[in-house]
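A.,

Following up on our hallway conversation. Structure tokens first:
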């Protein structure tokens, strides 16, 4: 069977590439570069998203890494329940997730009410913002991190066990280094997902205002032209990490 020449293969990709890139090309021409500026509220939203987003990533790593490893290495009949719990937030509209979180962590929720009496508010507060970003990003991290761990052959861990290594030592010295590229990709996707979280924040953490909610407010109050500067900033802070990891993977012959 004759092989397609590389030039012919590119023709198959052009329609999808054009479909995906065309809106961004339009954005370049629509942006009023001569009047490109950010006001104080925009800068505040950038600081909120970056600062609390970093806090959310620490929680995502702490919660998601052992959970993803457990999913990759544990096999039992009821594991589909854990898989379903991970997939449920992925398949739910973000706005619905915000409502779900509000029912639990809101001022009248089962967890929110007693925490509020202790002085910890999980709506319209910094902890609420971190909670929203963590909940929105964690399932994405877990799915990709699980795939990264599944890509590490258990034989390496078994070999380390024969050398008398403990399970924690094996995890940190064998499993994590071998899965680092996939885990980096999982973190990059979780980072972008957290920075772009809108639906959950709209319900649970409208304040402090992050980049997505600020973009929506600018659009409602001023109009489309007011959102372009902050939109470009969002891409500027969201995309470098996944792009850098992709280039690293390509250099290693993985991508």
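Then the amino acids I'd put at each of the 255 positions:
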């Amino acid at each position: 069977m004759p092989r397609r020449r590389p030039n012919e293969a590119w023709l198959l990709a052009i329609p999808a590439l054009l479909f995906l890139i065309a809106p961004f090309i339009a954005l370049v021409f629509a942006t009023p570069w001569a009047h490109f500026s950010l006001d104080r509220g925009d800068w505040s939203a950038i600081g909120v998203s970056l600062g609390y987003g970093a806090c959310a990533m620490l929680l995502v790593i702490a919660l998601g890494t052992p959970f993803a490893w457990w999913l990759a290495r544990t096999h039992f009949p009821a594991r589909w329940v854990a898989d379903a719990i991970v997939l449920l937030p992925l398949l739910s509209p973000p706005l619905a997730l915000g409502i779900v979180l509000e029912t639990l962590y809101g001022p009248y929720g089962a967890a929110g009410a007693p925490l509020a009496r202790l002085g910890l508010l999980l709506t319209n507060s910094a902890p609420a913002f971190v909670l929203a970003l963590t909940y929105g990003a964690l399932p994405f991290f877990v799915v990709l991190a699980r795939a990264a761990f599944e890509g590490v052959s258990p034989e390496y861990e078994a070999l380390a066990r024969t050398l008398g290594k403990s399970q924690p030592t094996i995890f940190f010295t064998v499993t994590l280094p071998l899965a680092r590229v996939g885990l980096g990709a999982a973190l990059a996707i979780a980072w972008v997902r957290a920075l772009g979280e809108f639906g959950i924040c709209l319900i649970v953490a409208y304040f402090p205002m992050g980049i997505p909610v600020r973009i929506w407010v600018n659009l409602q109050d001023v109009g489309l032209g007011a959102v372009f500067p902050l939109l470009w900033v969002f891409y500027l802070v969201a995309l470098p990490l996944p792009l850098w990891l992709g280039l690293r993977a390509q250099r290693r012959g993985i991508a």
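The radius of gyration is 22 Å. Curious whether your intuition agrees with the design.

B.
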